[in-house]
Specification:
The chain is α+β, with helices and mostly antiparallel strands. The protein is built from 10 helices and 4 strands; from the N terminus they run H-H-H-H-H-H-H-H-E-E-E-H-E-H.
């Protein structure tokens, strides 16, 4: 006697729901979920703060009649602006110390790296997944904050106390902030890999990052070719130099010879005029970088930082692939 199975009597098996992430990616995200969620919160809260501060500045300036009425000196001053510049300036350092340095060092210190890499996952695949998630999160967060701060600063740059060439502005707008965050994070990862202990790696990364910040700001003037501009000695400073970053200045004779700016800074006006006449000085000569050079300077700087990031990343992947993690 044959038996017929009805739909109601059939045993059905439902496949478990598929995760958005599987395998190694799921493991990496789960392991670093606290850091990733913190970074996401920083990006969201920071974005809200930047939008709020821009709106607040717009209201204050509109109430003061700007730009039709000039603002009294010093220009716009607000605790919110100072706090924003400080926070953005410290972001690359904090990412390097608290995200980059422990990324591999913590696994080495606690033995997690040896456990993972003795399974079916190769060391290269493991480190590639960790770096991809780390760099991706840093890039997204830094890009969002940089784009919003650039949107805030650019139309109101004349009322900010910081000049465009200073690190507070130059390093926090355009592509520089994401590139600097990536570079210092990569440096933290490399330092952690070499030291294999979390606290020493964080300490060394902090010192290294602060040194990089100081050196990097001094390199701004090297990212573009300086321009020279001459104007008559007795004329007022031309408007084209209002937003320029002055590198050096001289006084020049009619035949093009340049003298130090203080050459004829005599105690009396008569002595000063005699000095000017004696040397045939007719022009002020300014060496400067123009505001219109800023985008090219930023992309050049970002390229240098990204190239350095690539070198550090390649070294990290090579070392992890070649040597057992212990």
């Amino acid at each position: 006697m044959s038996t017929t199975l009805t739909d109601a009597s059939r045993t059905t098996h439902q496949e478990p729901g598929r995760r958005l992430l599987g395998g190694l990616n799921w493991l990496v995200v789960r392991q670093h979920r606290a850091a990733l969620l913190t970074l996401a919160a920083v990006a969201v809260l920071g974005a809200g703060w930047l939008v709020y501060q821009r709106g607040r500045m717009a209201q204050i300036l509109e109430a003061a009649g700007w730009p039709d009425k000039p603002l009294p000196q010093p220009t716009f001053s607000s605790g919110g602006v100072g706090l924003t510049l400080t926070a953005l300036g410290m972001l690359p350092v904090l990412l390097a110390v608290f995200l980059g340095a422990p990324l591999i060092a913590a696994d080495q210190e606690h033995g997690t790296a040896r456990l993972v890499t003795t399974q079916s996952v190769s060391r290269r695949r493991w480190i590639t997944a960790k770096l991809a998630w780390c760099y991706g999160a840093v890039l997204v967060a830094a890009s969002v904050l940089s784009a919003l701060f650039t949107w805030w600063w650019k139309p109101y740059r004349s009322v900010f106390q910081a000049h465009w060439s200073e690190g507070a502005i130059f390093d926090n707008t355009g592509p520089v902030l994401p590139a600097l965050c990536l570079f210092l994070t990569a440096a933290g990862i490399t330092i952690g890999l070499l030291l294999r202990r979390v606290l020493p790696a964080m300490a060394v990364t902090f010192v290294f990052s602060m040194c990089v910040e100081l050196v990097w700001e001094r390199m701004h003037s090297l990212l573009a070719t300086a321009r020279m501009f001459s104007y008559p000695l007795d004329d007022d400073r031309p408007a084209r130099l209002d937003e320029a970053y002055e590198l050096d200045r001289w006084i020049g004779s009619a035949d093009g010879h340049l003298y130090g700016w203080g050459l004829c800074a005599e105690e009396t006006e008569a002595a000063s005029n005699a000095c000017v006449k004696e040397h045939g000085i007719v022009d002020n000569v300014i060496q400067y970088l123009g505001f219109d050079q800023m985008p090219a300077m930023q992309w050049t700087g970002a390229g240098i930082l990204l190239a350095a990031t690539a070198v550090l990343t390649a070294f990290t992947v090579w070392r992890v692939s070649r040597r057992p993690l212990r």
